[in-house]
Specification:
The protein has 319 residues and is α/β, with parallel strands linked by helices. It has one domain: Metallo-dependent phosphatases (Purple Acid Phosphatase, chain A, domain 2), CATH 3.60.21.10. 23% of the residues lie in helices and 21% in strands. The protein is built from six helices and twelve strands. The protein has helices at 3-13, 42-62, 105-117, 135-146, 157-161, 166-175; strands spanning 76-83, 91-95, 121-125, 151-154, 179-180, 184-190, 193-199, 220-225, 243-246, 274-278, 281-285, 303-310. It has a six-stranded mixed beta sheet, with helices on one face. It has a six-stranded mixed beta sheet with strand order 6-7-8-9-11-10, with no helix packed on it. A hairpin with a 2-residue loop joins strand 6 (184-190) and strand 7. The structure holds fe (ii) ion. The site of fe (ii) ion has 9 residues, from loops.
Length: 319
């Protein structure tokens, strides 16, 4: 089935907001296209191995004292203003790095904040959990978000370290009517055009496959969801991407005044937080909501980002 055929079905059979396309063939992707793994160098293999060996035992150790965590109970809300004629008046919430293995009261606070922001869509850029036992807790949280707005998410390095198969994430996501994008794209119709949401697998583990980015088109805004900031090093000028959202850095997680950020996972390439640019592309690094390896954050509050698309400014005329 081609994209045009699918669009016709959507028009004739009522609203349908997602489908998968391939940039080169303009055909719908099938399940086998989802997780094509790219070549991995030996340092990356070593890092994945070390990450896998350290991550799970540490999370299990700290789960023995489940309520001991510090610096995670309050979050900041960052407003990102964007302009695109197809999305004027729309609003989205971006969350990342949930690392949600146990549902805490702070997750209720996050849901309440998201609800009060009235988003049209919710985007989540990976590191959903750390251990398989976290799945019911994670989807308890995601199901609550889904009552607020459609949720689109992709995977991060810890989602792979956890050992949970991609198919299991996909099945759970389907069951909760959540859109998991793993080297796939979804198209959402808006009042003035369309929003393409591209979700790639984790760039820090070299799983991202940008061939799912569709070509440039009129009245189309393309948003790229990727877990790690090094995706900015892979998007050349040919890719029609209006905005990239990612996480992975945790903002450094521990910030000691007067000392440069000393903890950044591979795949950040020095990008700690906030806006970064390369050529025509802009990337926002969200500090995320959870923790890695040690359950505390220092001078680095969790972050909820809000993207607001505002009216295009009329160019000033000179006579
Ligand atoms: Fe993370």
């Amino acid at each position: 089935m081609t994209v045009e055929q699918y669009r016709r079905i959507c028009r004739e059979e009522g609203p349908c907001y997602t489908f998968w396309i391939h940039a080169e063939t303009d055909r719908l992707l099938t399940g086998s296209d989802m997780t094509r793994r790219l070549t991995v160098s030996w340092p990356d293999r070593l890092r994945s191995f070390i990450g896998y060996c350290l991550s799970e035992p540490l999370y299990r150790a700290f789960s023995l004292v489940p309520h001991w965590e510090w610096g995670l109970s309050n979050h900041d809300v960052s407003i990102l203003t964007q302009r695109h004629p197809s999305l004027t008046g729309c609003r989205a919430v971006h969350l990342t790095d949930l690392h949600l293995d146990r549902y805490y009261p702070r997750h209720d606070k996050i849901v309440t904040t998201v609800e009060q922001l009235h988003p049209d869509w919710i985007f989540i850029t990976g590191d959903l959990l750390n251990v398989p036992e976290g799945l019911p807790h994670l989807f308890q949280f995601l199901a609550r978000l889904r009552t607020i707005a459609p949720v689109y998410m992709t995977l991060g390095n810890h989602d792979h370290y956890s050992g949970v198969p991609v198919a299991e994430y996909a099945e759970q996501a389907d069951r909760h009517k959540i859109t998991l994008l793993v080297n796939q794209s979804a198209i959402v119709s808006t009042a003035r055009g369309e929003l393409v949401i591209v979700g790639v697998d984790d760039p820090s583990l070299h799983r991202a496959d940008l061939r799912c980015v569709p070509p440039r088109a009129d009245h189309r805004c393309t948003l790229l969801l990727a877990h790690a900031p090094n995706i900015l090093d892979y998007v050349d000028t040919n890719y029609a991407i209006d905005l990239i959202l990612c996480g992975h850095s945790h903002g450094g997680q521990w910030r000691v005044p007067g000392i440069p950020t000393f903890w950044l996972p591979p795949g950040c390439n020095g990008r700690v937080a906030g806006w970064h640019e390369s050529g025509a592309h802009r990337l926002y690094v969200n500090r995320g909501l959870g923790w890695s390896f040690l359950p505390f954050r220092l001078n680095c509050r969790p972050e909820i980002a809000v993207i607001e698309w505002i009216e295009e400014q009329t160019p000033t005329r000179t006579t």
